[in-house]
Write a structure and sequence with these properties.
The protein has 291 residues and is an alpha/beta fold. The chain has a single domain (11-285), classed as TIM Barrel. It is 38% helix and 17% strand. The strands form two sheets. An eight-stranded mixed β-sheet has the order 1-4-5-6-7-8-9-10. A two-stranded antiparallel sheet has the order 2-3. The longest helix is centred in the middle third of the chain and has 15 residues, at 178-192. It starts with 16 loop residues before the first strand and ends in a 14-residue tail after the last helix.
Length: 291
């Protein structure tokens, strides 16, 4: 298995085989993200991908789950993805699911038939960086998609049978738009009705546009308690979810939470209220946070 540059994956994919099928991110303009500053986007050579699968077959033959990196594997043509999925199934007889990151643009480019075929071939889950449900915030961070487009994309993938895992980020709205960011994020997640939903807490990365805006005084970072208050407002505005698994187990968060919506909503709100009253000792120390 060979890797080029920084490789990331969702926390839930930590123990799974990571296969790079492309390098970088085809959008790579989000102002907060420094993940792929070290490499330009390009699809990986198919022959190399197949070689890596062959190597992995020898090293980890009992593989059950695979994550396709880098930032948006779904940008690749459907025919190429099917070839990769077929090879993975041949290499790993115990394979249960394949996952990848995807953005709204990639999903909307695929036909319903394409998505259904990919699901049948083993693509069982996609992770969408929603970041915010507020269009003003999305424009500010240069996400490249509107909230309505992301809702449409998520519902389209769900219709094909693919599980949806959404990722939101606390703090993107600053103080002046914190409530707007939180309320709209809760509303949009409710519309999507994902299978999984997680919130991260904003950390400024040197070299990114958002970090430069912060240094110039054009962006103000929320305090830890303000971040928790924003999370509370997101959860308060989640309605109509059906067996949605929720986590804040990412290293960036000040307070690890877990639960399932709708049944754990009130309990999560109560835990947040207790943390907001409990002072700094209730939160993860700043030195322990990471990306």
């Amino acid at each position: 298995m060979r890797y080029h540059g920084m490789v990331i994956r969702p926390p839930s994919e930590a123990k799974n085989y990571i296969l790079q099928v492309s390098y970088g991110c085809s959008h790579n303009k989000c102002t907060f993200c420094g993940t792929y500053l070290d490499k330009a986007f390009r699809p990986r050579n198919l022959a190399e991908i197949l070689e890596d699968i062959s190597l992995a077959k020898k090293e980890i033959p009992a593989t059950c789950r695979v994550f396709l990196a880098d930032g948006d594997a779904l940008v690749l043509p459907t025919t190429r993805l099917i070839k990769i999925l077929d090879e993975l199934k041949l290499a790993f007889p115990q394979l249960e699911r394949v996952g990848c990151y995807a953005n709204a643009r990639d999903i909307l480019r695929k036909t319903p038939k394409d998505l259904k075929r990919l699901h049948e071939k083993g693509l069982k889950i996609i992770y969408i960086g929603l970041e915010s449900g507020d269009d003003e915030t999305l424009k500010f961070i240069e996400k490249g998609a509107t909230a309505a487009e992301m809702v449409e994309a998520a519902l389209k993938a769900k219709e094909a049978g693919i599980l949806i895992s959404l990722i939101g980020i606390l703090g993107l709205g600053q103080q002046k738009k914190s409530a707007q960011h939180a309320i709209e994020t809760g509303r949009v997640i409710s519309e999507m009705n994902p299978d999984f939903f997680s919130m991260l807490t904003l950390m400024l990365v040197p070299g990114t546009k958002l970090h430069a805006q912060w240094e110039a005084g054009e962006f103000k970072l929320l305090s830890p308690k303000e971040m928790l208050a924003e999370l509370r407002q997101v959860i308060e505005n989640l309605n109509g979810l059906s067996n949605c698994i929720f986590r804040t187990n990412h290293a960036s968060n000040y307070l690890p939470l877990r639960g399932t919506f709708p049944q754990d909503k009130e309990g999560l709100l109560a835990m947040l209220d207790a943390a907001l009253k409990g002072g700094k000792n209730a939160l993860r120390p700043e030195a322990w946070r990471g990306l």
